[in-house]
Amino acid sequence: MIPRALKRFIHQRTLKDERYRYLFEPPPPDEYVSIDCETTGLDRKKDEIITIAAVKIRGDVIVSSERFVRIARPEAKMAAEAIKVHHLRMSDVENAGRLIDIWPDFLDFVGARPLVGYYLEFDVAMINRSLKTFLGAELPNDQVEVSGLYYDLKYGDAPAGVQCDLTFRAILKDLGIPEMAQHDAFNDAMMTAMMYVALRDRKRRGAKIPRIRERPQDEITA
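The structure corresponding to this sequence follows.
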């Protein structure tokens, strides 16, 4: 695996358009962008983004008035299983623009800010596959994975053999965050932003997320 610093240097050299040099500059202090994508499936090599959403975070404030939401028209037909997840049909996206036409506005919105996400690696991989054609480079932004923050605060000191639940719903429940309709890109970006703010606050205060001790069967039946 190529070290991140080296990849960043390479992409600075392969950048097609100097107008996007700002992506490699230092980000505004204590600002982040929570992102989420809905796709035609989970195959990084052939599936496509159909919705991308982002919302800015400044310090401990989620700036919901500064949001980015776009629908893209995929080249291939959507699988029935994917439609069941995100509830977007071909008829809903047939008049949308092409994904490659979305990138200028997306990059201007995100800038050099670190990206926050839930299983962010997948979303960034899907973005980069298309973005490299447009930009000649991948997103250089730092990345913050909320499931990793959650794991550290709940399971980081757990004994061997403890089962870990890193599902989206489990994180929402433990942090007391209300569940919005999932598999809507903006809702997911908003909930992920709320997770990040709550987890960062706990980490700052040194407040672990408690694990409920499972009672042995003989205690339950005694």
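The chain has one domain: 9-209.
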